[in-house]
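Hey team,

Filing this mostly as a record. A colleague (T.K.) asked me to run one chain through the structure pipeline before their review meeting, and I want the input and output archived in the tracker in case anyone asks later how it was produced. No errors, nothing strange. Just documentation.

Input sequence:
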Amino acid sequence: QVQLVESGGGLVQAGGSLRLSCAASGSISINAMDWYRQVPGKQREFVAGISSSGSTNYADFVKDRFTISRDNAKNTVYLQMNSLKPEDTAVYYCKRNVGLSGSWGRGTQVTVSS
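Output structure:
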């Protein structure tokens, strides 16, 4: 079972940047990988995804601000977040897609102050 560990979260002022990392314990080269986020009391929502070939897609609310990338040699996926807003405050989760299901990391907290 491939384990996922997110890191890079923290407290940042509005307008600032953070880079999240998702390190996998095994190869993820054949997997599409996603980032999701969740705030208390709300459903987890899709943020960005990257296919095994490197194609990307984004939720409308992060387009032109966030960039997802992957380094298969390091078994790591990244989420570069720029121009952060207070409404980006959430726990960010990495997901490894396997068929119709997948596996999740435990998340990393991102807090954006106004």
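Quick notes for T.K.: The chain has a mean pLDDT of 96. The chain is about 0% helix and 55% strand.
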